[in-house]
Amino acid sequence: MGKSPTLEFDSKWDLSPAPESTDHINLKKRYDLFIGGKWVKPESNKYFKTINPATEKVLAEVAEGNEKDIDKAVKAARRAYKEVWSKMAPGERGKYIYRIARLIQERAREFAVIESMDGGKAIRESRDVDIPLAAGHFFYYAGWTDKLQYAFPNRKAEPLGVAGQIIPWNFPLLMAAWKIAPALATGNTVVIKSAETTPLTLLKLAEVIEASGLPPGVVNIVSGAGATGAAIVNHPDIDKIAFTGSTGVGKIIQRAVVGTHKKTTLELGGKAANIIFEDAPLDQAVEGIINGIYFNQGHVCCAGSRLFIQESVNDIVLRKLKDRMKSLIVGDPLDKNTDIGAINSKEQLGTINKYIKVGNDEGATMYQNSCPLPKKGFWCRPTLFTDVSQSSRIVQEEIFGPVLAVQTFRTADEVIAKANNSPYGLSAGVWTDKGSKIFNLTSQMKAGIVWANTYNKFDPTSPFGGYKESGFGREGGLHGLKPYLKF
Amino acid sequence: MDRVEILKTYKIYIGGAFPRTESGRYYTPVNGTKQLGNICLSSRKDFRNSVVAARKACGKWAGKSAANRSQIMYRIAEILEGRKTQFIAELELQGNSKAKAEKEVLASIDRFIYYAGWCDKFSQVFSSVNPVASSHFNFTSPEPMGVISVCAPEGSGLLGLVNAIAPVLAGGNTCVVLASESMPLCAITFAEVLNASDVPGGTVNILTGKRSELLEHMASHMDVNGFSYSGTDKEEIKKVKECAVENLKRVSVFDGNNLLSADNHSPYFIDEFVEMKTTWHPIEKIAGAGSGY
Amino acid sequence: MGKLNELPDFRLTPRVDQVGVGDRIARIQSRSVKKASKLQGLKMILNMIDLTTLEGADTFGKVQQLCNKARFLHISNPDLPTVAAVCVYPNFVAQAKKELLTTKIKVAAVATAFPAGQSSMDVKITDTKLAVDGGADEVDMVISRGRFHQGEYNYVIDEIAAVKEACGKARLKVILETGELGSLDKVRRASDIALYAGADFIKTSTGKINPAATLPVTCVMLEAIRDYFYETGTMVGMKPAGGISNSKLALQYLMLVKETLGDAWLSNKWFRYGASSLANDVLMQIEKQKTGIYQSKDYFSKD
Predict the structure, then answer these.
(1) Distance between CA atoms of residues C207 and C213, nearest Å
(2) Which of A123, B217, B264, C227 is most buried per CB count within 10 Å?
(3) ipTM value
């Protein structure tokens, strides 16, 4: 018996840098708040910096909104709702939303570059996924404005009024689209706050909104941190709160609205099970695993972070997974060949590294590829842990990074129970070539999105949202209209 | 000296190109005493060629994603918007007042946008997951019918045409359209708009000519799947329905009036031109009953 | 080390999800190969080309021109490598061998009732011998697609093994004719059959039908080679043929090899392109890399 065969993926043919050009983008040195159709200085006159997590260089200064700014914004939204937006013919409202979609398409490359610079996301993803989907959401919802009477049988749908929306840092522009498009399409007006580390694309969207001629006050854009978000949640004249972020903060918000008239939808964390059966198309399943946990640096609420491999194919799947990991490139988000960009912030990198240490301390076996890492910036190699179990912390808790926990299973009963054994319920993945098994699994997963023989697929027509502590309410599709309406 | 104008030639639109009628014939619709042009008097062979083109285009149009079809239809509206003065002038030429012409053109643009927006929503409203008693995943969803013969309303130069075509397209079908006999100009100019958009050649084919010559062929052709008739002539309707029997063409009759009213645009017009397919697949029941479909 | 005595049940070959393969290919296609890495890639590609003429109208004159092209392709640019081989019908092998005597360029011949392969075993072996006796370094055979679709996998594998034996020292490339197989599952099955039968290369197409080589079928075949390598320790080469007429596409194929099989396969011992017009496009791109100027076909000899 000789040495077992190995494949080398070293450096016989390395890729030269392929940087996306950035000289065509327009970034101001400082951004104010966008309220009532105008750029308005923050009441506190305070600004904070946003950096590029790949280089740690400052990109711009953005305004720190406080309660007074939020009050202004809500007043502007309420006036626009009462005097203009609720009185406009639905088809005409739709045309404004179509304009926004078109403008995003026209400025797509600039949006993609700024998204990558501000958040650390690989340009391939911002260019090929985030921005096209964002435009797609506006396109899709634009068409609903004058068709609501067909969406809800026997019900007359009416807008709620003013929606307060808080979005996260992992898909900044896309989350803005997921929030703004359905709100506007159903006749509401909006006050929306970007995440602290990724304010720029929402501010560029404000420029698009200006160019679209959307009546002032229909969309108001503010930047700020946790306190700014709290000001939105607590403002008495908001009818609806939509939040995407951590489960912890989601619970705070839910508690805060008790006793008020405010409706909420929450899209929170997850710890999805990605399940590979022995009769799965294994090479494609491996690609799905990679897609599920390593892209967008694992900063995905629906990431397939718990891998379950049917024991009979454990060795072969792990071998294929590790081989595939060897060709993943961690690097400059603006390099067109980068697969895994920068971790969004120092804090998040700290969290991820903490969990990696926990995994090692818990006795799990770690594997990482050996790709080179840039010197400045926040980076994490794609990582996987074997020899873990349901009770391991790295299996239970959401890490929000490129870290995969791998377990084996023997039967369908076992894996269904384990997959559902979590307070989360956002998503799940099932890989098998057998149709009846697919439907067995998908019908029993306690998750709002189940991917069969694929993973991390999104579409404006497809509703997204969780069970249990992953939140409630749906975004996308016909079901995504309901959270913004009353009947 | 006054500049000499280039006069427009109105040809027909088949397979993404602008041929003349193979019969070489023409007719001259008039507005009062003014002749509107030498308009192609299309023959049954033109119709036959159009069906071939429409059938070929079926896979291309239906093969696009719904979102893509929506974008293409939206773009048709964009181009129409950019050329609205030309259409208004043509409607005036054909006897409409300026105010009426403007209203009609703007409504045509908005009507196209309306149906563009249905492309990727229609199936959400009209499909179902059916909770059958056996252990099967069962769903019903619409599919395009195929090639549709469309007879545009006689009394409208543009809106009637657009209103007849848009729901057929939104459903994923291709079509062969006979324009209004007395007001055919905008139909051909609209063909130019289609040609400039990304709609694949053959998806919409537009013929000009006489109903009395073409209706029978449009209704009897064995490779046409549906018929959209706009009008109130009882004899015509009878003829269409009789001719359609041989291959059980689905015939939809619209009166072609009140085009501007809200009742005249709805997803139910798309529903007229789709087939419903129901699919079953077993669900293995392992690990207890759990939630079903 | 190997388990060459145990043939797997080919009815149970691994499943392939076509949409999933599409996702993998989309990732490959978005790779951006620039500057030094592009030049390096283009040179590798040039060195991997099997310059091909397989026409009913081929003559000794045509083959002579092909061989000249192979010999002089790189003359104006001395640090360019030569192509890997020329590929001709068996009756031209001897002539090609003579023309290319002073070079390291190999002579490959198609055989076994190419392209349809619809003939008896005897005829196919005789055809192979014609090529081998003429001095062919490599033989490109076609599998019996008819028998394959009939489910007679034993026949298919036996036929390949018999041709391999008739090849002697010549290396055997097995053409699956993926465009006739109907699905990626079947491409995988045919690949496994060829691998276990002893192929030195598995090749996508004859180039005589559409579709010829595509990135998805190449991906499936490379993955089959990978699994076979891990199972037996044996390396097998891969050759996509037909439909690769520009450098950008050729670089995507090379990227697929790099990310699926790694460094060891990035040489013309283990990867080839079956192409005719690709060579000129590669030369044009190399020139563009060096000068920064977009090129015209007028400046590159059309043989």
Answers:
(1) 8
(2) A123
(3) 0.92
